[in-house]
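User: My instructor asked us to take a sequence, write out its structure as tokens, and then describe one feature of it. I'm not sure where to start. Here is the sequence I was given:
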Amino acid sequence: MPYTIDDRRIAHQTVDGEVIAIDFVNGAYYSMRGTACEIWQMLILSVTVDAIVAAYRTEDPAASEAVDLEIRSFVAELLAVDLLGPGDPDAPAQARPPLLAIQRQPYATPRLEKFEDMADLIKLDPVHDVSDVGWPHVPKRG
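Assistant: Let's start with the prediction itself. The structure tokens for your sequence are:
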């Protein structure tokens, strides 16, 4: 199944092998490095989870069961925190990862790091929160 990103809620950028994703609704930002970054890149290119698992299992067949479980758990975590949502099941998904997204470093358990230290600033989005009163008056949320 392909997945989608709600661009009204989530902004993401890959810089130097790290994905930074910001959730403007809850104010959290997330970091994904190494294997997690590579998996994210494949997911947003509509590569299926099965194809991603197969690519990593090929790299290390001895750890195939653990790799399968870890990748599926990571994708479930991305869905649970709303960084990804279910996409159109009828949309074409890529069965094989594109070359640019294939693992470039040894497999490591994918990790999603969550930070909330700037949540109040992130949720305070002056471009979208301006009312007739103007900036810096923040509308009441609730």
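For the description part of your assignment, you could build on this observation: The mean pLDDT is 80. Try explaining in your own words what that tells you about the chain.
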